[in-house]
Amino acid sequence: MSFLDRIKQCNNVDDFSKFIPFVVEGARVGWIHHEFCYVLKKFDQIFEFFEKKICLSPQLVTYQEKTMAIDCVVKFLAEEGWIAEPSDELYPVSTGFYTTPFFEMDRSAISRFGVSAHGIHINGFVSLRNEIFMWIGRRADDKSTYPGQLDNMVAGGQPVGLSLRDNILKECAEEAAIPPDLARKAKAVGSITYQYEENNCLKPDTMFVFDLELPSDFNPINTDGEVADFKLLPVREVMSITADTTAFKFNCAAVNIDFFIRHGLLLPENRDYIDIQRGLHQ
Fold first, then answer.
1. Does the pLDDT at position 214 exceed 90?
2. Which fold has domain 3-11+117-279?
């Protein structure tokens, strides 16, 4: 196991030909696995099926019409066990973060349609005795995704209707009881993109990364039940856990590695340095 191995886990798609483009108004917005296509044929008034693409029906004209039609599909998929129960957290479906979305889709179905999702990840750290310590969360054991795995201090998806900054305030409050005045000090430090395949679902996702230096007397406390506990660990220990184990959720490991590079802890002398940098931006 190595840092590069963790990056490769984020970018594990070995054959894109397994997927067919999902197209709306002539623009590709996602990727659908060939084996899943037959499930959608029940909804031939919502989708149009071609040899090399699946399109949302042009009969669905408005934003609301598209959103309501897809919501019917999502509910069916949840009832049939193709996706988890709807989360009531809606994501925009578009060609990119800065483009106008075509409609909204429940978070639970996003990867089944291979739609790009965006989220925020915040590294909480403390400087003590000229050494960096990082606050690391452990995901709750009853969480539906990646239960019990280690996580960044604060992380969350980017839903419809919130700015990145407003989402930071929301997630900081829910996940770590960080007050707004302190949460506003989170510094934008870049983004990480990856393409991850799991159970015939595709996640071509983007994480907006922030660093938040915390006072030495601050202790994060989870308020939404999604984090079991927090630990303040020396950064060298976090590096070892990241490189030598799979304890961290796969994309959180990538956020850690990005932190190590930016803080001068993972250096060009590492023979995988260039490949690691490349892998953070797929």
1. yes
2. Nucleoside Triphosphate Pyrophosphohydrolase (3.90.79)
